[in-house]
């Protein structure tokens, strides 16, 4: 199997779709110029807004969202596959005004070939005093997705999903050879857990883990951890941006490494039923 040149885009996404596209476009062009055939952006690529009223003022369906439309055109122009790590869009569910946090995989012709709504929403009170209630604004999805690409299966997850190993195992067992983890991690949890969780999910699944991240101080007041990372199937960090500034991270995936890892530790075939503890 041929090797796959990829690029992760690290962003500091602004608070409107038009400004968000203007921010990410040159980074994607840089990635394509550097030879990447699959390019991945972070969670909330189309805008990053905490305030519910301000968010609702710019919220659109995925078909009408300005950033999504322009990103599809850009993928077609550049002839690359592009994963919008997520776009915040109208969920399309009648009677529920919450948004969807949705990954969109775009092929080299600009078509949306797969989508995934974030399964696990982040509701927490942090020791720092930060309080997050993602469930108030985001309608969680209800299904896992392995998207088919010319290079193999790509499992789709978003941010907080990284803490649920059963999801990643299910993706690997369904044919994923690489798993996307686009994120907007907070600084405290990013510093403590980001790389450890990414490496653990790679080791448990024998997959490449591709984690493009939001980074730095945003217009809406939040700070995100950055440190976009690619982890190989044996658990070693293949490439990493060791900062919280916008940038492009290049890597090359050799899918023979997936075979080697899963042959050495065939854990995906060794499940056993058991009685849970009482």
UniProtKB/TrEMBL annotation:
Belongs to the carbon-nitrogen hydrolase superfamily. NIT1/NIT2 family. The keyword Ligase does not apply. This is Putative amidohydrolase. PROSITE patterns: CN_HYDROLASE, UPF0012. InterPro entries: C-N_Hydrolase, C-N_Hydrolase_sf, Nit1/2_C-N_Hydrolase, UPF0012_CS. The keyword Hydrolase applies. Keywords: Hydrolase. It comes from Brevundimonas basaltis. Residues 4-255 form the CN hydrolase domain.
